Amino acid sequence: MLGYIARRTLVAIPVLAGVLLVVFLLVRLLPGEPCTAMLGERATPEACERFNRANGLDQPLPVQLGIYAQRIVSGDFGESIRFSRPVSTILLERLPVTAELAISALAVAVIIGIPLGIVAARRHNTVVDVGAMAVANVGVSMPVFWLGLLLAYFGAIVLGNTPFALPASGRLPAGMRPDPFWEVWGLDLGESGFVYSMAFFISKMQIVNALISAQWEELWAAIKHLILPTLALATIPMSIIARMTRSSLLDVLQRDYIRTARAKGAGDRLVVRRHALRNALLPVVTVIGLQLGGLLGGAVLTETVFGLAGVGTALYESISTRDFPIVQAFTVVIAATYVVINLIVDISYGYLDPRVRLK
Amino acid sequence: MKKLKGVVILAILAMVAAACGADEPADTSAPAETSAPAETTAPPETTETTAPSDTSAPSGDLASVSAESCDYGGKIQSIEATGTHEVVFTLCSPDPAFLAKLAFVPFAIQPAEHLEATGGSPLDNPIGTGPFMLDAWERGSEIVMSANPDYWGGPPPFETLVFRWAAESTSRILELQSGNAHYITNLAASDYETIQNDENLVLLEDPNPNIFYIGMTNTFEPFNDVRVRQAVAMGIDRQRIVDNFYPLGSEVADFFTPCSIPNGCEGEPWYEFDPEAARALLAEAGYPDGFDTRITYRDVFRVYLPEPGAVATEIATQLRENLGINATVEEVESGAFIEQTSIGAMDGIHLLGWGADYPHVTNFLDTHFRGPQFGDTIPELVELLDQGAATVDEAEAAPIYEQANNLLREHVPVVPVAHGAAADAALATVEGAQVPPFGAPQFHTMTPDGDTLVFVQNAEPISLFCADETDGESLSACEQVLEGLYDYDLEGNPVPALAESCDPNEDGTVWTCAIRQGVKFHDGSDLDANDVVTSFAVGIDAAHPLHVGNTGGFEYFAYLWGALMNAEDAGGEG
Asked: Do B559 and A42 lie within an 8 Å CB cutoff?
């Protein structure tokens, strides 16, 4: 198993290098200069020249690429052109927001999508089946942006004067600043170093931070702020998972060994749970893995609508302002996440189906 | 299986660790004390003039910054502290807009010691004298400020000011409607009705002066013939454009400079829509059946041009229907568009506009008609602009600008089309909510129904060192914390702030500013003349060791004061 993971990791290196190369070139092919974005429309050519020199943008492309590759190998993503701050620091601030959103959306998608698919398969060709699949079809057809605005309106305005009102934007209410969990625990982690960075990362996942440090008011606020974006982001993957579960389960339920199980007197629920579902879930797991990758992309729109400071909004703003270091680093991290998710999916095959052996 | 889970967790942690390294996350806490000096690049060699280090002289010494001569092209020759509370600005030539420019927030004052301690780059820990003090900048989410109880103008009527941001206009409105925000900015035109129909909200018109114009470069045929340009001026129904593509409150432009700017509307108003006279002029110029040309624009939303593509198409339609001119519509990437138009290289008709930086007619006329944007300049006009720029007294300058405006009408380098309206919105419970013509909303003059006012703007500030920022979002936040020698009042007039007064000498080339006494910075230190000189020196002197900032461009210093001093000596670091 470890050998398999090592080989897959090695294979990922050229993939990530390819992603890096493509993104590096593509962002520079975009019309518009970082100088204009940063210094404004009235920047003189001389000012732009100085700006480009200070940021290494006056070098030939291969030289820029070489310098960047050299840095990134040593784990240095460089400094943001806009903010004059290390990209890795910005990543540490942004990634937890997206991670929390994507994980919660995937959880909702799986928790609702799989049962919906199972119900539809078990009640094949009934009103329940048609209804469930109609819901799934509507869900998969709904643009995230539009759905997000609709949900925000519903949560903030329609429910506005009720106890069920939900906030339309932001990760926490204005002015609320939960203490980092390590401070609540009385730990002194300093202000730098690997341990501090990891703790900082975790503390920026507001639900996790509030939960493990027993800050209940903050926990409730964090959950409330995540509900609408989660629903918006989860709708499409939930619909896809439901449809895939249904079709996969229908296929398995028609297999001979299922007929045999039924012939031996096993009840419908037992047949589905013990014999059919595990096999039917193999393609579903693949889809879930792919959807998690898609969630990172969908997060761009969701985060924009709900004003969340995640990877998506940072990437969007950085593309608009030609902040190359952020675009490059964030894209590579998203690609790396995708690679890791695929690896986890492949490993999970062996768990779901013992006949699958990883070599 | 447990082993597998462990491996997976380790893999994820390793990936995050590799991505994030061990870099230190931002310190988002408030700057109660200044941090240790940042490591900066080695200071460049000092100039032959007053050494920049003079500006960071120990207490008791008076700071100064100067250029060797005025040959560097800028407007300021020197800035000197002539007493603990007196600063003298010596200009290369009179500048009637001097006070209006001083009020712009990039020229705000911070303690000299703080600028030194932060290596000239206090990007997220500004220390000012303003009505609010920075408490925390939660990156990506919000900036929290608290009321300055010792504010020299009197403490604000509420405790906490929160800056948040949402890119979508609809999201901002939802925040307002749900009561989570008290004041939002930059409404989309389509949302005006929503606000007006909600009795809990108020629409706040933004009176910032601006102009949308049709430019023609007179070095390209057929626009080298003034009759063609006049024909275009008469052949376009500007009212139709305003009616169809601009929000309520917008108006047709009778002059290039909006009338809210003193001397902007002297002279004869623009031509009436008269397609017959326009066709006659075209025929006289040798184009009875029109001609082929192009209309270029950039697809960027601005208050002066909210729907660029649609307006470009409308103008093409009107040119064809009214004058027989066949114009193709071409979108040009924004950066390239600005670059091409600013050097007069854009053939055909181009659509552009301008929003005022400061309340003076020079900000409109000098910016546009001294350079090559519309081809060859009009010598008589440039002469008048020179006279205007040397006349400090507004009444004396009025006849000069009357002639200048009439010359623009005669030569038609541009067709002024519209002054676009913009608006903010607030909860009806916020007393005193108002949008000033210049600068950000002045929240310390407003009273919400509680102890906190939440403001939602378009985007997050880039930094809070506004000497080296150009984005409105940064400037809005800076204005709550920082102040300059002058400020804009709610009508847009420059009024004394950290200066009790700034008075010119007879010819307007020397301004002596009396610095307000007894003012304290948020860190408790006293404001003095050295703080003023150092704050200016850091921005305007490219050879100053603290000339670091965010981008190092200090664009507003270069743009509004003509150029950066000692830029060559900076060795490109400026």
From this structure: yes
Interface contact B333-A31, CB threshold 8 A: yes
CA gyration radius, chain B: 26
**Structural contact between residues A310 and A322, judged by C-beta atoms closer than 8 angstroms:** no
Candidates B143, B94, B23; CA nearest to B360 is B94
Stretch 144-203 of chain A: residues touching chain B, C-beta under 8 Å: 149, 152-153, 156-157, 160, 165, 167-175, 177, 191-194, 196-198, 200-201
| Residues facing B136 on adjacent strands | B29, B144
Cα pseudo-dihedral B218, B373, B274, B225, rounded to 10 = -10
DSSP state of A191: S
Interface contact B335-A32, CB threshold 8 A: yes
What does the alpha-carbon distance between residue B219 and residue A79 come to, in Å, rounded to a whole number? 44
- Cα–Cα distance measured from residue B348 to residue B216, given in angstroms and rounded to the nearest whole number: 6
Does residue A344 sit at the B interface (CB-CB below 8 Å)?
yes
Q: Which chain B residues are closer than 8 Å to A307 by Cβ?
A: 164-167, 171
Chain B: nearest CA to A248, how far in angstroms?
A: 26
Tens digits of pLDDT across chain B (574 residues): 444 444 444 444 444 444 444 344 443 334 333 333 333 333 333 333 343 434 444 455 899 999 989 998 899 999 999 999 999 999 999 988 999 999 999 999 999 999 999 999 999 999 999 999 999 999 988 999 999 999 999 999 999 999 999 888 888 999 999 999 999 998 888 888 889 999 999 999 888 899 999 999 999 989 999 999 999 999 999 999 999 999 888 999 999 999 989 999 999 999 999 999 999 999 999 999 999 999 999 887 788 998 899 999 999 999 999 999 999 999 987 777 887 888 888 899 999 999 888 889 999 999 899 888 899 999 999 999 999 988 888 899 999 999 999 999 999 999 999 999 889 999 999 999 999 988 899 999 999 999 999 999 988 999 999 999 888 899 999 999 999 999 999 888 899 999 999 999 988 899 999 999 999 999 999 999 999 999 999 999 999 999 999 888 898 898 899 899 988 644 333 3
Picking from A239, A278, A284, the residue whose alpha carbon sits closest to that of residue A255 is A278
Tell me, yes or no, if A46 comes closer than 8 A to chain B by beta carbon. yes
Task: Pull the structure tokens for residue B512.
Answer: 């002596």
Residues of A in contact with B141 (CB under 8 A): 170-172, 309
Helix (H, G, I), strand (E, B) or coil at B326: strand
Looking only at the bridges linking them, the beta strands covering B452-457 and B183-184 are: parallel
Two tokens, residue A270: 């037992």
Which residues from A are below 8 Å from B173, CB to CB? none
Ramachandran region of residue B276, left (φ > 0), alpha (ψ -120 to 50) or beta?
Answer: alpha
Structure tokens, B173: 């409105």
Residues B213 and B414: beta-carbon distance below 8 Å:
yes
Contacts of B8 in chain A (CB under 8 A): 344, 347
Closest residue of A to B474, CA-based? Answer: A83
- CB contacts of B35 in chain A (<8 Å) are none
Residue ranges in chain A assigned as alpha helix (H): 2-29, 34-39, 45-54, 61-73, 87-122, 127-141, 144-153, 181-184, 194-203, 206-212, 216-253, 256-263, 268-270, 277-306, 311-320, 324-352
The conformation of residue B73, written as its DSSP 8-state character, comes to S
Confirm or reject contact between A38 and chain B (CB < 8 A).
yes
Q: pTM for the whole thing?
A: 0.82
Indicate the pairing of strand B142-147 with strand B132-138.
antiparallel
Q: Which residues have C-beta within 8 Å of that of residue A219, sequence separation ≥ 6?
A: A207, A210, A211
A142: tokens are: 């709904």
Query: What's the gap in Å between the CA of A159 and the closest CA on chain B?
Result: 9
